[in-house]
């Protein structure tokens, strides 16, 4: 019951984070800087909550942080590609996000503008592939 609630909350938090990133992109393109800042801070907070919930859920289920071997269906090769690209980019995204936010808060916007599109792309990719991994394991697993 508790792990089900944590799973639902983690999916909700990463969805909000991903949507806030997309919203932040649209806001900055329309030059609404303050709204962009709020959207990106929201995305960051929800991403941190997600990571906490993810680690907590996996700790409670004693399954490790990476669900290797948990999917045995006909799309295992695709699943493993998505899983590994997701895992590697999720690890890379953390320092990218920290650097991007640091540039923004320090007011070094030229540096921020150079790295932010890369960070946003990786962040959105990680959010979408996280959903795909969940889908594979919950609905496609034999």
Automatic annotation (TrEMBL):
This is DUF420 domain-containing protein. Keywords: Membrane, Transmembrane, Transmembrane helix. Pfam families: DUF420 (PF04238). InterPro entries: DUF420 (IPR007352). Signal peptide: none annotated. The chain crosses the membrane at residues 6-27, 39-57, 77-103, 115-137. It comes from the Bacteria.
């Amino acid at each position: 019951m508790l792990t089900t609630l944590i799973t639902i909350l983690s999916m909700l938090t990463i969805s909000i984070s991903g949507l806030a990133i997309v919203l932040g992109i649209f806001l900055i393109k329309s030059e609404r800087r303050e709204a962009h800042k709020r959207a990106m801070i929201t995305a960051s907070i929800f991403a941190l909550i997600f990571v906490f919930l993810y680690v907590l859920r996996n700790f409670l289920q004693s399954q490790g942080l990476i669900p290797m071997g948990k999917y045995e269906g006909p799309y295992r090769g695709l699943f493993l590609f998505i899983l590994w690209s997701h895992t590697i980019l999720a690890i890379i995204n953390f320092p990218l996000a920290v650097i991007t936010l640091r540039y923004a808060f320090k007011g070094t916007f030229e540096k921020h503008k150079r790295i932010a599109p890369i960070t946003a792309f990786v962040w959105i990719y990680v959010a979408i592939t996280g959903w795909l991994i969940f889908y594979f394991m919950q609905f496609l697993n034999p």
